[in-house]
């Protein structure tokens, strides 16, 4: 970055930690960028005239007389239609060998849309994944996380959602991606011919963890341009919010802030909320929908990161390995979309709600039968049919590799009902049974 005449330059540091430096300075604003000994930094704390900056690549080797140049503005992104199909780093700089973006310069991390200008979410977002569309239908303007163990293929699921979702633009914010995952996303998007509607902001494991803090704001600044300015339906995919929170933890620890639950900073809730609350349905048709991965530690959803996330978001999608089928599924018991009732039966078929509830209830009966079997109890004919149903239901409707339309999902469920149960056992309304029931072949 070049320096201008108005930029303030200082040469005396008062304190240096592993991630931050402090100095006396005036006329400095929160979040302002600076160059410390040639390294990009950002203001994270101001106490009187004592200013603390986080140095993105670390402070090793910085002397106390290092030159500090304040740039006069917070991080910003040039926005235009040319963002589509491009890959950028945490600073909004191209990493795909393409040209720099020329466009309107907008500061990132601004406030969310005024509630007065919001509209109740009401537009279905199909993903093709039955465990989502059938049981946990997504709505435009919704904010919802994937909870997953670190060894599960959540990035592959995110890529599938990106390629299947019926939206105008998809914006990927990758935090702490391995090089393999980064290349996987690039190859998937390019081979599918979908680059024209996908914009990616990426921080890899080889890059400084603190840079991850910029990724969500960069992604959402681009999302707001397309949703607000262009009235487009935008889906933002963020992975992994646990690594984002870990980066928050690094900075707060280096600043000697008192940690809260699970060593997380006390500001964790508000830090997460300012990201998720950017989800919005606008009156003119534009929308921002946020799906974010939160990896779990040994499946612990009581940890501060998923716990705080659950208070902010409108449900969660829970991935787990189904031991009976060997498939990764969207768990119907622990997953929930709190907004699905806004579209089920309104923008989907009339039988959606009853089919969804019946399918999950029968799956629960199979779970009870499995418990009886494990404890040495005899199984009834109904129990045995439930167990057979559960395996096929898991394979054909819960597995993340299922890619069919919502009508096909409903038809598949009716097929399974007719294969394993009587009409009475399903408990579905008689008029729907008469219209959709599929007898055994």
What would your notes on this structure say?
This protein is α/β, with parallel strands linked by helices and 441 residues long. Strands 9, 13, 14, 15, 16, 17, 18, 19, 20 and 21 form a 10-stranded mixed sheet that branches. It has 3 domains: 9-70, Elongation Factor Tu (Ef-tu), domain 3, CATH 2.40.30.20; 76-341, 3-Layer(aba) Sandwich (Rossmann fold); 352-436, no CATH class. The chain starts with 8 loop residues before the first strand and ends in a 5-residue tail after the last helix. Helix 6 crosses helix 7 (304-312), helix 8 crosses helix 10 and helix 9 packs antiparallel against helix 10. The protein has 12 helices and 21 strands. The longest helix has 23 residues, at 352-374.
Concise synopsis of the structure shown:
With 441 residues, the chain is of the alpha/beta class.
CATH class of the largest domain: Alpha Beta
Low-confidence stretches: none
Number of strands: 21
* CATH overall fold name of the largest domain: Rossmann fold
Which features would summarize this protein structure in a list?
Elongation Factor Tu (Ef-tu), domain 3; 10-stranded mixed sheet; Rossmann fold; 3 domains; 441 residues; alpha/beta; 7-stranded antiparallel sheet
Secondary structure layout plus pairing:
Elements: E1 9-10, E2 15-16, E3 20-24, E4 33-36, E5 39-47, E6 50-55, E7 68-70, E8 76-79, E9 87-88, E10 104-107, E11 124-125, H1 130-133, E12 138-139, E13 143-148, H2 154-164, E14 169-177, H3 179-191, E15 198-204, H4 215-229, E16 233-239, H5 241-254, H6 268-276, E17 280-281, E18 287-295, H7 304-312, E19 315-322, E20 327-330, E21 336-337, H8 352-374, H9 381-398, H10 406-420, H11 423-426, H12 430-436
Parallel strand pairs: 9-15, 13-18, 13-19, 14-15, 14-16, 16-18
Antiparallel strand pairs: 1-7, 2-3, 3-6, 4-5, 4-7, 5-6, 8-10, 11-12, 17-18, 19-20, 19-21
Helix pairs in contact: 2-3, 6-7, 8-9, 8-10, 9-10
């Amino acid at each position: 970055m070049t320096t201008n005449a108005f930029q303030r330059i200082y040469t005396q540091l008062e304190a240096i930690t592993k991630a931050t430096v402090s100095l006396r300075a005036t006329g400095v604003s929160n979040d302002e960028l600076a160059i410390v000994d040639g390294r990009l930094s950002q203001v994270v704390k101001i106490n009187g005239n004592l200013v603390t900056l986080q140095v993105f690549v670390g402070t090793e080797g910085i002397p106390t007389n290092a030159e500090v140049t304040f740039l006069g503005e917070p991080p910003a992104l040039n926005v235009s239609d040319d963002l589509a199909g491009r890959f950028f780093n945490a600073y909004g700089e191209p990493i795909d060998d393409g040209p720099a973006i020329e466009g309107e310069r907008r500061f990132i991390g601004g406030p969310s849309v005024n509630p007065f200008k919001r509209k109740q979410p009401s537009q279905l977002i199909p993903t093709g994944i039955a465990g989502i569309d059938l049981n946990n239908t997504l709505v435009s303007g919704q904010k919802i996380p994937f909870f997953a163990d670190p060894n599960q293929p959540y990035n592959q699921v995110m890529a599938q959602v990106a390629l299947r979702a019926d939206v105008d633009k998809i914006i990927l914010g990758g935090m702490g991606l391995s090089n393999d995952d980064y290349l996987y996303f690039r190859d998937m998007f390019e081979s599918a011919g979908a680059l024209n509607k996908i914009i990616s902001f990426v921080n890899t494991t080889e890059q400084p963890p603190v840079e991850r803090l910029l990724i969500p704001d960069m992604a959402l600044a681009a999302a707001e341009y397309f949703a607000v300015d262009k009235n487009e339906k935008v889906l933002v995919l963020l992975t992994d919010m646990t690594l984002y929170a870990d980066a928050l933890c690094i900075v707060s620890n280096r600043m000697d802030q008192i940690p809260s639950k699970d060593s997380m900073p006390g500001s964790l809730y508000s830090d997460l909320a300012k990201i998720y609350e950017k989800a919005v349905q606008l009156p003119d048709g534009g929308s921002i929908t946020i799906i974010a991965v939160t990896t779990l530690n040994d499946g612990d959803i009581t940890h501060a990161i998923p716990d705080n996330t659950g208070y902010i978001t409108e449900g969660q999608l829970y991935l787990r390995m189904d031991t009976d089928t060997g498939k990764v599924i969207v768990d119907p018991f622990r997953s929930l979309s709190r907004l699905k009732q806004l579209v089920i039966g309104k923008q989907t078929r009339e039988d959606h709600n009853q089919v969804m509830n019946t399918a999950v209830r029968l799956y629960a009966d199979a779970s009870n039968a499995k418990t009886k079997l494990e404890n040495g109890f005899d199984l009834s004919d109904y129990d045995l049919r439930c167990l057979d149903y559960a395996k096929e239901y898991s394979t054909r409707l819960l597995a993340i590799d299922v890619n069919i339309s919502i009508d096909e999902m409903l038809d598949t469920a009716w097929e399974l009902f007719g294969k394993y149960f009587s009409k009475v056992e399903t408990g579905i309304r008689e008029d729907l049974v008469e219209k959709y029931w599929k007898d055994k072949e």
